[in-house]
Specification:
Blueprint lengths: L16 H10 L4 H8 L4 E2 H7 L5 H13 L3 E6 L5 E6 L1 H4 L2 H14 L24 H4 L4
Antiparallel strand pairs: 1-3, 2-3
Length: 142
């Protein structure tokens, strides 16, 4: 009679719940870029719109609402005239800065091909509330 060998069965492991939650939020298109831009300072909606190429106003509004609901940013309304709304990262949002910088470094090292570089917004200057995007915030994330 042949002896049966006992196989050790590894316990079933799944995807990490914390990472699942992170990517459910930050894995959505534009969300990481919005957070990256907001790591620099508070931004007005119109500045964010100009700073992130190709994002629609509707998408920006939706993503900002999701980030606020998740507790990563605050929305501050400045009564006018004109009425202006600014967005600023909370402590939880600012805590993502080092992780985003690590992702940027990883992208430079390991993603093949040329990465698009986002420079300043066309026509932005200091009189335009400094709507220039910091290259370091977006260069590896777009």
């Amino acid at each position: 009679m042949a002896q049966q060998q006992e196989e050790t069965v590894e316990p079933c492991s799944g995807v990490d719940v914390a990472l699942t939650r992170v990517f459910a939020l930050l894995g959505k298109r534009w969300t990481g870029l919005i957070v990256a831009v907001l790591t620099q300072r508070a931004w007005y909606f119109s500045e964010l719109r100009r700073a992130i190429p190709k994002i629609s106003e509707r998408m920006l509004s939706d993503r900002l609402s999701e980030l606020a609901e998740a507790g990563l940013l605050t929305r501050e309304v400045e009564t006018g005239p004109p009425l202006r709304v600014s967005y600023r990262l909370t402590e939880a949002g600012r805590a993502l800065g080092p992780a985003l910088e690590e992702l940027r470094t990883w992208a430079v090292s390991y993603l093949p091909g040329e990465l698009p570089v986002v420079t300043t917004c066309p026509g932005a200057d200091e009189s335009d509330d400094g709507a220039a995007v910091a290259d370091s915030a977006l260069s590896g994330l777009v």
